[in-house]
Inverse folding.
């Protein structure tokens, strides 16, 4: 970015809530059902029907507000946001405008260089989703209204974000929180977590904000980062050329890596917001708030600190392990079986996460049970198998639902720790490779690795590496004299 400028970014994040039924009717929220099957007169906006608020929605938004340091307003009201669109049969969306449930919160984000920064949350409010228009048909657009009335929360940040990187960190944090609270699955690709960015630039030191634009349709963290960087550069270029930024909404095109204007940005008054006459104000009493607060799980930051403290892990490890609640749970299940906390962390951060990312699966579907991985670590530490053998057993564990000990016995992989047995192998190898032995004595110490390799080959990798090293050194020294 041009050094003379700084970016001012605010994010509006929509999180689809994991309730069984919709916000104002009892229709299912299930994703992927036959189009237009999860509907009823209420979510279709037939005349004369009345919405009834799903209590779970209020519980979920209150949890989110509490987890993000918000004030929970005792009284909040719904409003109608009026606009016309084919996938919005009612002609309005039930949302909240003047009195949202949550206000004045913040989350703390940690940058790559470990600086901590607070990003303010202006408000979090409840609203219902619209349907879906499927435009990619040859001659027509199809409308699926299954999503109409599915509950959302919208989390509006203060314009505290200064770079694409910070925006990614902030969104990562929000996703982590909704997943920990189990109120949203956080899946950006499927649209259960959606994000729009308001972006402007200004000269460094300038107090007033520049004219902002809004970018929509960034369905991954990568696209969020790319889109923000694109827009910052675009705005700076216009200003540098003496032009003016037009307030407008842009649509990110991930295939072309560019944002194209969608429409001139609406002002709030274009939506003709007014209080929803069919719904009573939402009252969250102090006692209900307490009841909900009691359900708050241990939040990611607290858990991370506990991992560092209780398992003596580096902050880096703790951060990776607690990024996802399922992974953190998995790790804690392993360390119920083994006391080697760091090895457990290495296995999860390495082999386990590699497979999860490659196969794009949830940790819940990871084939190796945590207790079996814990047992594998114990087998190494007890000297039953070598670390190398463990790496061979791991893929077998992925395929077969067996304990590592079963596999070790079945495949006869128990480590050879008998000194005499290893000594016999070494003596034979040194006899067979007298020229390499001479090379070693000439100072080419690398040849040592060759001997180790030969021993491992002769024992099918089962020789205890430490004993091999010790005996090999001793034997060579003896030969030298
Ligand atoms: Zn319905």
């Amino acid at each position: 970015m041009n050094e003379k400028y700084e970016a001012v970014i605010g994010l509006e994040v929509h999180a689809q809530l994991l309730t069984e039924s919709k916000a104002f009717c009892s229709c299912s929220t299930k994703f992927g059902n036959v189009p237009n099957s999860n509907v009823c007169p209420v979510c279709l906006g037939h005349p004369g029907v009345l919405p009834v608020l799903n209590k779970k929605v209020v519980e979920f938004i209150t949890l989110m507000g509490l987890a993000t340091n918000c004030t929970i307003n005792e009284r909040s009201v719904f409003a109608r946001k009026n606009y016309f669109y084919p996938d919005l049969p009612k002609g309005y969306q039930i949302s909240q405008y003047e009195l949202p449930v949550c206000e004045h919160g913040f989350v703390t984000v940690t940058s790559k260089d470990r600086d901590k920064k607070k990003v303010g949350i202006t408000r979090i409010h409840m609203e219902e989703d619209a349907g879906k228009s499927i435009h990619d048909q040859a001659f027509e657009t199809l409308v699926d209204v299954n999503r109409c009335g599915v509950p959302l929360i919208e989390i509006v940040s203060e314009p505290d974000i200064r770079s694409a990187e910070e925006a990614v960190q902030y969104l990562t944090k929000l996703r982590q929180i909704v997943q920990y609270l189990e109120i949203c699955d956080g899946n950006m690709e499927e649209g259960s977590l959606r994000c729009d960015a308001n972006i402007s630039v200004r000269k460094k030191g300038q107090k007033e904000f520049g004219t902002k634009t809004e970018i929509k349709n960034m369905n991954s963290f990568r696209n969020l980062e790319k889109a923000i960087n694109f827009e910052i550069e675009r705005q700076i270029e216009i200003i540098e050329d003496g032009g003016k930024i037009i307030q407008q909404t842009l649509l990110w095109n991930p295939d072309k890596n560019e944002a194209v204007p969608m429409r001139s940005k609406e002002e709030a008054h274009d939506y003709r917001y007014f209080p929803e006459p069919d719904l009573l104000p939402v009252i969250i009493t102090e006692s209900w708030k307490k009841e909900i607060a009691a359900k708050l799980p241990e939040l990611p930051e607290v858990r991370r600190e506990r991992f560092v403290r209780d398992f003596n892990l580096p902050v880096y490890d703790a951060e990776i392990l607690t990024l996802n609640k399922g992974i953190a749970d998995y790790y804690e299940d392993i360390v119920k079986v083994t006391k080697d906390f760091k090895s457990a962390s290495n296995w999860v951060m390495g082999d386990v996460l590699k497979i999860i990312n490659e196969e794009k699966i949830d940790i819940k579907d990871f084939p190796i049970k945590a207790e079996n991985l814990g047992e594998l670590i114990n087998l190494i530490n007890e000297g039953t198998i070598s670390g190398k053998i463990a790496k061979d057993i791991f893929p077998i564990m992925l395929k077969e639902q067996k304990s590592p000990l079963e596999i070790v016995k079945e495949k006869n992989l128990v480590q050879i720790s008998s000194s005499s047995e290893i000594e016999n192998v070494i003596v034979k190898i040194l006899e067979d490779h007298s020229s390499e032995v001479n090379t070693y004595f000439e100072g080419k110490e690398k040849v040592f690795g060759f001997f180790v390799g030969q021993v491992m080959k002769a024992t099918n990798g089962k020789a205890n590496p430490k004993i091999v090293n010790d005996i090999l050194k001793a034997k060579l020294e003896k030969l030298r004299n």
About this structure: Residues 22, 25, 27, 39-40, 42-43, 149 surround zinc ion (CB under 6 Å). The chain has three domains: 5-291, 300-410, 419-480.
